[in-house]
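Why should sequence recovery work at all? Because a backbone constrains its sequence more than one might expect. Tight turns favour small or flexible residues, buried strands favour hydrophobic ones, and helices have their own preferences. The token representation captures these environments compactly. In the example below, the structure is given first.
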């Protein structure tokens, strides 16, 4: 992030803290509760946002070495992600070309060759079929035509993108909508993987996203946790086409007034939350990044699964790994026990259909933008004002 932008955001946040003001969209919008449980809408979302759109599946730190791999199954097909001997990132359908069994069932690790457990067909981590068991009995086969099914895959700005459609394209700069240079400056690719927590919860995937989308709740829901660190009811908001950035103020932010502005760093006084369309949150703090990936349950719109992964600055991890990892894990614990716990009660309450709308106030522009972006992508009218 340019230093001038860091100074602008920090000054704006400090002014808000001192004046007791907050971001103001100038409008209150109504969001139909049906959007959180309607099966027909959920199917459209699944096809549009998750089966036909590039997906961020992790960060470069998930594949730290040549030979690293990880697997996932979050948007319709089991995927095997690898880093080959040349350091290149690949993504494949995790399925043997013989009879379809998964060639790798471990969550992550290091492997140069993947052997199908069914009949032993073997694949390189760059995707080529290298061995067919008992070829004299199986019959002749051109191995060059039967490598693992390759998916479009791009590594850029420290993120790993995959397209679920083998014919799809991935244009990271276009997807980031004006955030490319900012993300490049963060040098996310240097961060080290620090662990992951997964939460399968009975709440809609958009509702799970909503729980993070404003600072209005900090003094209330997080009164015994985050409120000790963050200023409640204070944030900055900027949108970048389909994406957005929120800046949240630490209670210590006013101490920056004692420093020369050329020494100001955004993470010394603020915590940045990026929403990347359609389902990603990138939370940037002084120690590194928390990546949140939220997926719907394609069979039940009232369920979702969230993967919260932590990526840490290498020097901090080497200096005090246990403290850094413990602080990172605390974020996931708060999400589960406070944000998502309230979200579950919300899902139960609105599923009756008796309450037709939820409200997004002037101080919740991120949620207004988040939902209007989806509605626009689905050809739906924007949210109505109160």
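From this structural description, the recovered sequence reads:
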């Amino acid at each position: 992030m340019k230093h001038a932008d860091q100074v602008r955001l920090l000054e704006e946040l400090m002014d808000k803290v001192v004046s007791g003001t907050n971001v103001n969209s100038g409008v209150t919008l109504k969001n139909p509760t049906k959007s959180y449980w309607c099966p027909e809408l959920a199917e459209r979302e699944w096809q549009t946002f998750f089966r036909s759109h590039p997906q961020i599946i992790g960060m470069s730190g998930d594949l730290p070495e040549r030979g690293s791999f990880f697997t996932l199954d979050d948007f319709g097909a089991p995927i095997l992600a690898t880093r080959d001997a040349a350091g290149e990132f690949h993504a494949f359908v995790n399925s043997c070309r013989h009879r379809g069994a998964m060639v790798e069932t471990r969550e992550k690790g290091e492997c140069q060759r993947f052997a199908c457990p069914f009949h032993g067909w073997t694949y390189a981590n760059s995707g080529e079929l290298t061995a067919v068991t008992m070829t004299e009995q199986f019959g002749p086969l051109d191995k060059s035509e039967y490598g693992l099914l390759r998916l479009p895959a791009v590594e850029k700005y420290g993120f790993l993108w995959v397209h679920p459609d083998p014919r799809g394209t991935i244009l990271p700069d276009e997807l980031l909508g004006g955030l490319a240079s900012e993300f490049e400056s963060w040098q996310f690719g240097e961060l080290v993987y620090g662990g992951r927590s997964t939460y399968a919860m009975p709440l809609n995937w958009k509702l799970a996203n909503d729980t993070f989308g404003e600072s209005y709740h900090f003094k209330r829901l997080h009164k015994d946790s985050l409120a000790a660190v963050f200023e409640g009811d204070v944030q900055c908001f900027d949108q970048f086409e389909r994406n957005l950035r929120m800046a949240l103020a630490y209670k210590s932010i006013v101490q920056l007034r004692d420093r020369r502005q050329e020494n100001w760093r955004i993470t010394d006084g603020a915590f940045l939350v990026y929403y990347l369309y359609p389902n990603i949150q990138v939370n940037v703090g002084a120690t590194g990044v928390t990546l949140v990936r939220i997926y719907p349950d394609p069979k039940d719109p009232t369920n979702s699964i969230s993967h919260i992964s932590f990526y840490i600055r290498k020097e901090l991890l080497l200096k005090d790994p246990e403290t850094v990892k413990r602080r990172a894990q605390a974020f996931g614990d708060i999400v589960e026990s406070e944000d998502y716990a309230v979200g579950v009660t919300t899902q139960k309450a609105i599923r009756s259909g008796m309450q037709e709308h939820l409200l997004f106030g002037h101080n919740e522009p991120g949620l207004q933008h988040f939902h209007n972006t989806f509605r626009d992508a689905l050809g739906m009218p924007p949210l109505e004002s109160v």
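A few observations help interpret the result. The longest helix spans residues 321-350.
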